[in-house]
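Batch job 17 of 40 flagged for manual review because the log was empty.
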Amino acid sequence: MQLFYVPEYNGESLVTLDKEESAHIVRVLRLKENEEISLTDGRGNFFFAKIIDANPNRCAVEIYKIIEEYGKKDFYIHLAIAPTKNINRIEWLLEKATELGIDEITPLLCEHSERKDVKNERLEKILVSAMKQSLKAYKPVLNPMTKIEDLIRNSKEEQKFICYCEGERKFIKDVCEKHKSYLVLIGPEGDFSPKEIALCKEHNFSLITLGSQRLRTETAALYAISNLHFVNQ
């Protein structure tokens, strides 16, 4: 099954796809009028549609069935992570995190951050591609890069975790409660600063270990996400 993206869906049964999706349908897949395709708006709607105009620039389809809240989970994962100097590693992470199932992502600006900015336009394309590839109807929310102090002070999630390398910590699976909203902080390769850890403690973050092994930033993030999914199974 191929899944296509219609982010501007407004409730109409007749939808025109953008040039990129239209070209893929008509020129790459060589689909014709009356053939069926599946679509999503990235906000939980999964559509079944029939092609009515196989135009490679503006392919028009008619939606005949909608499944709302397709694949919706009863928990919410917000990953806040300091991007690595090699942005390819973060791009890989976003692809895999989307496939696993994540709801929100915030690039973090920390005291020890090696990367001070990210190109969200590029990251958005990766999220869309991963959503389509894994046949999901929810595209993760991608926030702009945020100072860690601002995120900590403004976080509203029911359970909040900071993963770091030293001190007395617990395993995330041992403190995670089911069916909650979660915020997970993953720091830069130089780890969080003592000031950042102290601020998390002040705001009721659980101090988390991911085991005795030393994990790279993107591996630590996937490990934490997998644990949250395991607890909620």
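Reviewer: the log was empty due to a logging misconfiguration, but the result itself is present. The helical segments are 19-28, 87-100, 120-133, 148-154, 172-175, 194-202, 217-231. Unflagging and moving on to job 18.
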